[in-house]
Amino acid sequence: MIYCGIDWAEKTHDVALVDHTGTLVAKRHITDDAAGYKILLDLLAEHGDTEDNPIPVAIETSRGLLVAILRTGRRKVYAINPMAAARYHDRHSVSRKKSDPGDALALANILRTDMHAHRPLPDDTDLARAIAVLARAQQDATWNRQTIANQLRSLLREYYPAALAAVEPWKNGLCRPEALALLKAAPTPTRAARLTRTQLQAALKRAGRQRGIEADTDRLHEVFPAEWAHQPPLVEDALGEQMLALLIQLKAACTAADQLAKAVEEVFPQHPDADIYLSFPGLGIQLGARVLAEVGDDRTRFTDARGLKAYAGSSPITRASGKKTSITRRWVKNDRLNAAGYLWAFSAPNASPGAKAHYRHRRNDCGDWHAGAQRHLFNRMIGQLYYCLQHTELFDEHTAFPVELAEAA
Questions:
Q1: What pTM does this model have?
Q2: pLDDT at 159
Q3: Are 26 and 42 in contact (CB under 8 A)?
Q4: How far is the C-alpha of 355 from the C-alpha of 129, rounded, in Å?
Q5: How far, in Å, CA of 134 to CA of 285, rounded?
């Protein structure tokens, strides 16, 4: 049997093929373009790569055009963690020597000796992979928007506390269109104090506000002219220019997050598993799409629910050595799925009596902290999700939490 290892880079890649004895049978240095991909496929075909018996490939990434070309057909592609590949070198050499062809050879030998210990890339459908692209992009845009909003808030605290008091009653605060319009009209507290009622109403209308304009105008007209501490005039104007530059970034981040959210809302309901995800309490379209993006729709990806729980980072990990044993949370996990699980466990008790009873049981009876109780709830619900996906069933409250519902009753 032939095994392939590829050390990838930005412009060129090194390829190594070994047989079952570890003998190097071929190596190539290819470019990252269509011509290089053709050379790679021809090299694999020369050494027995067929549709029915493809050669497995090990590479240190799971993304990119090269991986997309390799995943055509039934070929198994193994995304080896770079840390695991680096540790493999120590099995054969302690001199710390390194070369790109040597790395490709090491990756091929990892498959030859330990292929059973590594998981190939899941065989997800194109629709699931498209949802993964949009959901991850929307998640990144949301995180980026919150990062810029935090930077803006920190800047406003330095010279413009009136703006923070003005947007405090509004949901989403500085990310609202009304807040962006007001800060653009008055970048400094001195200019905000001179705003008239007509100017305030015009700013709210430009932001799309249609109701409650009079009430907010009265409130803002009292907040801005109130007595606040001020920076020196020159410093205040300079900070105002910095704030306007940051405001442009925040507006772009808000627009990107909203556009990607609309794209997710259009694509996610088309997936056959969408109804199963949406049947779970606490999972809406956006959060359900994030979970689907990381779990995928390959039913053979996880052998059991324990594998999915470990992948999500919800199940604890045990470290035992001699007389010492410790049970702690997992640090190596899918961070995106774990972040989505935190939001899922946060909102599920509001829509599920069983989830709320389970959370209170962990908090009151077991003595868990808030984060520990949420992680335990997420661990239980993602196990239920695995069962529903395997059996194509919708979430059922009485089946999921029979004991908690009885205790609550």
A1: 0.86
A2: 93
A3: no
A4: 30
A5: 12
